[in-house]
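Sanity check

After download, print the first record. It should look like this:
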Amino acid sequence: MNADLFYLILFMFSSYMIGSIQFGIIVSRILGKIDVREYGSGKTGTTNILRTLGVVPAILVIILDILKGAIPVVIANAFFDNELMTALGALCVIIGHCWPAFSSFKGGRGVASAFGVFIIFAPYVALIILFLGILIIIFTKYVSLASIITVFLSSVAIIFMVFLDYLSYEVLFFAVPTAILIEINHLDNMKRLIRGTESKFGQKVKIKKKND
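Expected structure tokens:
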């Protein structure tokens, strides 16, 4: 095994392990004394934290999850001149977040961490799509719908930017698989949206603590 391949595998593995850190579980246990996976959607992301624990824990989780996606990309850009390594490492962060080794392979849907990567690759486009996502939430009250649409638009934007040579083609090794994985993670939400049974933004989940 040559050195480049070794570093690539090591970085991908390290990125997966970073992605496996579930801030939703950590925050829910520290601030709420619960395991958020036992409530609501069973996911560890911001939306389920918001429904179970409220605004402040949700803000904390989304910031940490965004940083979780961004930091490995920043490290790769700073220490390695290898765009493929950066893209594959970013993909492994998302895989780790969705199927974490530390949490029985039950994590979140990967939207916030993917945004953390996207904002490093294309900050202005990422902010525009974020604004669009906020508008969708305001007018429809569906966080899942905003996630489904903005993830799709983000992947299309990256493909378009690669086609125009604003981004290297290696970024596609992150963008395309990540979009597919996140959309697959939203299949249950899509079904509920079609049936009209999807939970709306602001709806609370009643939690029962162990001493209740």
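If your output differs, re-run the checksum step. Summary of this record's structure: The chain has a mean pLDDT of 90.
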